[in-house]
Structure formats: C-alpha cells, structure tokens
Amino acid sequence: MLHNLEWLGPGQQFPPLRERERITRYHQNALLFDGEHFGDELRVHQNVFRLEGSIGVYQKCSERISKVIGNFEDVISFPVLLNYQRLMSLKMADLICGEYPSITGISSQENDAIKETRDYCEFDEKLYASVIDISRYGEAIWRKYLDEDGRRTFTCWDPSEWYPIVSQDGTNTILAHVLCWRVNTTETATESPPNWQLHVQIHWCDKERRGTYEERVYQMNGDGGALSGEIESMRKTVDTGFDTCCVQNVRAFKVSNTVYGYDDYMPLDSILAEIMERVGQISVILDKHADPNITGPVTMLDMDPKTGEYHLKTGKFFATSVGENEPKYMTWDGQLTAAFKQLEFLVNQLYILSELGAAILGGADGSTTAISGTAMRFKMVNPLAKARRVTNSLTLPIRKLISDLSVDAEVDSAENAPAAGLSSQPFTVIPYNHISVFWKDGLPDDPRENIENCKLATGASKMMPLHTGIMEYFGRSDGEASQWIDEIRNEAIASMELQGLDQDPNHPGPQDGTGVNPQRKGSQLGLNNFSGLNNGGSSE
After folding, report:
1. What would the 3-class secondary structure string for 151-189 be?
2. pLDDT value at position 477?
3. Any idea which of 105-114, 335-344, 442-451 has the lowest mean pLDDT?
4. Nearby residues of 138 by Cβ (< 8 Å), 6 or more positions away
5. Which of 268, 281, 277, 249 is nearest to 177 (CA)?
6. What DSSP string describes 217-241?
C-alpha cells in the first residue's frame, strides 16, 4: 500500500513497485473475463476462427473429421476454452442486480427525487457493472462529478487507475484517492516516438479539502514507464461541487491488513486450468480412437519393388488363408471412465470453491426440474449467502451516493411539486439515514407462494397491512398499491349494490344472525356434549 505521494517524484517508476502486482492482477483478470486465457497463442487461433467466406473454427472441424489421418501429430487442434470466470461474474451480478433493488425515502417527495436521480444517472446499469468489477477485481471505484449540464452524476472508474494513500497508524484509513492515467499526446497513434504524459487527480478525504481535487500532469519517458517531472504550469485545484470526497471504493468484505478487496478468480486458477487440461486430454484420446491403426497377416502388405518397403493394400477387402490371423483394429484403453470421473470431481470442487453451485452455473446435477420456490432457495443457500455478503457491503455506500446525487433532482421535484399534488416547499438534500435499500434475491418468483404468504400476512392474524403486503409480495409501487386497494374496494361495493346487500357478505362474523364469527372461540351453533370413538366425552 502507498502511504504518501513520493512515488510521483521525478525518476520514479510507474506504476509504483508496491502496486505493480495488484495492477498486473487487474489486467490478467480483465483478460480472463474477455476470454483471452491463452494470451498470444489464443489470439493467433482467434484470427483463424473467422475466415473470409466461412467461420474458420467450424471449417477446421470439418477438415479434421473428414480427413484421413496418416499421422495424428499432424492434426490441427485448438485449446478448449471454458470461460467460467465471466460466467461467475455475470451470475453473481444477476443474483444481486437482476432484480433492481428498491431505494426509497420517508416521503413521497423524496421517493420522486430518488427515482428521478436513479433514472438520470443510469444507476441500475452502473450498479451491475460495479458488481462485475467486485467479482473480477475485488473492488469497484465510484467517482462523482458534474456533467456538461451541471447535473450531479457518477461513473464506474477502472480500478487499475486507482492508487489510494493509506494512513500508517493501523486504522487503514484512506487519506486520499489518487486517479492516474497515461495519455499519448502525439497527433496520431502511429506517430513515433510517442509522447507520454501522466494525468493525475488527487481527491483528498479530509474535511478541509473534500469539495475539491488537485489536478497534476507529469511528463514521462519514452516508453511511459517512469516519470520525468511535473509540468508545473498545468497544476490546478478544481471545485467538484460536492461536500464529500468524490471517489469511493466498495468491496465485498474488509480485512484488517489491507484496504484492497479479493477477487473471485485467483482461488480458482489452478482448478480451472486442470479442468481445461483434462477436457483437452479427453479430446486427444477420442481423436486417437477415431482413426485407429490396423493389424493383420503379412499377406495384407505389398512390397514396393523399387524401395523394398511394404505398404498396406488400400482395398476394403482383405482375404486371409487358413491359420492366418484376421485383420483387426488395434485398440488402446484410454481410461476414459477414470478421466470423466476425475473431471466430475474437479467440476464439483469448482462449485464448492466458487460458492455458486451447480444450480446457478447450469450443471447437470443442478435444478432442472420444476420445484417450489422454497426448495429452490434451499438449493441456492451458498450463492445467496455470497450475494448477501456483497449487498451488505453495498447498502451504506449506495445510501450515501444517492444522498449526494439527489440534490438537483430534489430541487426539480420541489419546483414541479404543485402539479404532482405535493408540497411546494423546496429542500436541498435527502439525508442518507432517510434512504432505505431493499435487495431482492434475483431468483424466479413462485406466484403461488407469494399469494399464500400475502394472504397469511394480511388475513385475520395478519402481520402487515394489505397495502404493504401488495408492495412486498407483488412488487408494486406505493401508488400502484393504493390504486389496487381502491379498485378492490370499489368492486366490492358494486357487487353489494348488485345483490341488494347492505354489508359485504365476505365480512368476517355473523351477517344475518346465523353466521360464525371467527374472532370468537367456539360457536353457539356447534353441537354440545359431542362424543365419539376418539372423544373422551360421555354420550349421555
């Protein structure tokens, strides 16, 4: 970790030596997410995958199958790429953000402001990208700024350009967030040599400098690997328009010895490499069995009179004499059963270590049959626990982010409030402790369970109002729930008028003196002193 700004001095290497391993890991994980597991070797293959006039990989497969193989070593083959890394990141993002979280305030005016801010900033799309970054890098970086219209918004910054300055007092307090990126100032990309400059933004976290950041530009050497010196004339202080630090890092969980997070890829590198190697070895065995060698009597061979070499007859029929061995293919036990069993074991370990399981990754032993929503959730305990770990770490940063971004939206809502039937008294900020974030599990809903839960929660022994039950179990907004209840009430009144009734026939309790009141124990209409074979009462 970095504890000061000495690494920005003349002659210093960039990236700093202390951070080089972290930056390298970010670049490697980005390549894994993009499917470039094999580096330059795979890029060469990708160039021949798509050829002009045909799709190269399928053309090569056709040639490979139809070709009469004389020497197996000459067969062209490609490495088998199984991009579990991208799948893991996308599935985790689907669990967390597949169903947008509900973000609400304590009043209708605050709710309108939050909704307007959420739409303007494209919050849901950027939240999805943030969860992917947390999965593949270990952290996501948010930077707030004023756009060209002067409105508050934010962006997801590349973590490889983020260098935090950390206090050395053992608290792991971030004193400043430094954002750095290199720029080639030559007129054209092919112009040689390039002129590299390092652009730096220093966002301080102390109270005195929170609303500003310091901008610097450094000249770099020819290959952009070291700093030559600062261009003093380009240093300036920029007002951000915010009262808080404009850069924030979020991660899945915190530990005591670092401010950085942990990605999902590194613990799985060895097992994924072994899985791809095992699949490749199985393919080699099957290819050998596709063109086996043949054995038989010597009479099957013809001798070339010029060279004296023997060659196999090319005909389809081989005649054998009495006592000669019949021609047959040579077979080799490739231990495919053991190979597939080992592959199955490795895949199961992948499910365990990734905390996602077969159900979400689409394994053969996953959930492929119609089961109840409760059973599905029990099957998804580990993935949901992992998703909850991330959402717990995101809740407070999101509340603070929405609080900072909703200032402009609140003013607009206040100006337009009379048209919406709201209070016209303007205010400037939504306190973050007024904002609530409710996460959903991202799993398919079971309509039957939702209805049963809602009926239980809103019945005679209800635990929540009907209005809240409709919002909770049917995903309706506050206004939609109110409209729903009004329509139910109006339909009930219309039905009573049609039947000429003065009271709702579905109302609990006696309607005409002969009904049963479920709110009271027992009933006057019940049988007294009832007895039977399973009743201890007397029949007299």
Report:
1. CEEEEEECHHHEEEEECCCCCCCEEEEEEEEEEECCCCC
2. 84
3. 442-451
4. 159, 251, 252, 260, 261, 262, 263
5. 249
6. EEEE-TTSSBEEEE-GGG-EEEE-S
When mean pLDDT is compared across 154-158, 244-248, 352-356, 501-505, the lowest value belongs to 501-505
Look at 394 and 520; give whichever has higher pLDDT.
394
In which residue are the tokens 């003013």 written?
Answer: 411
**Three-state secondary structure call for residue 517:** coil
DSSP 367-393: --S---HHHHHHHTHHHHHHHHHHHHH
Provide the β-strand partners of residue 164. Answer: 177
- Name residue 32's amino acid: L
**Distance between CA atoms of 434 and 104, rounded to whole angstroms?**
8
Task: Look at residues 381, 374, 324, 333 and name the one whose alpha carbon lies nearest to residue 357.
Answer: 381
The model's pTM is 0.71
Residues 6+ apart with CB under 8 A from 246: 143, 144, 145, 203, 213, 240
Residues 445 and 264: their CA atoms lie apart, in Å, by 28
DSSP 3-state of 279 = helix
Q: What pLDDT sits at residue 453?
A: 76
Quick one: which H or E segment has residue 295?
A: strand 294-295
Q: Which two tokens stand for residue 359?
A: 């159900």
* SS3 at position 221: coil
CA-CA-CA-CA torsion sign (503, 506, 512, 517): negative
Mean pLDDT of the chain: 77
Alpha helix (H) residue ranges in 67-122 = 84-97, 108-120
Residue 85 burial (CB < 10 Å; 0-12/13-18/19+)?
Answer: buried
The dihedral built from the CA positions of residue 386, 389, 395 and 397, taken in this order, carries a sign that is negative
Q: Could you read off the pLDDT of 98-141 as tens digits, one per residue?
A: 888 999 988 888 888 999 999 999 999 999 999 999 999 999 99
The distance of Cα 409 from the centroid of its chain, to the nearest Å, equals: 29
Q: Looking at this protein, which amino acid is placed at residue 254?
A: K
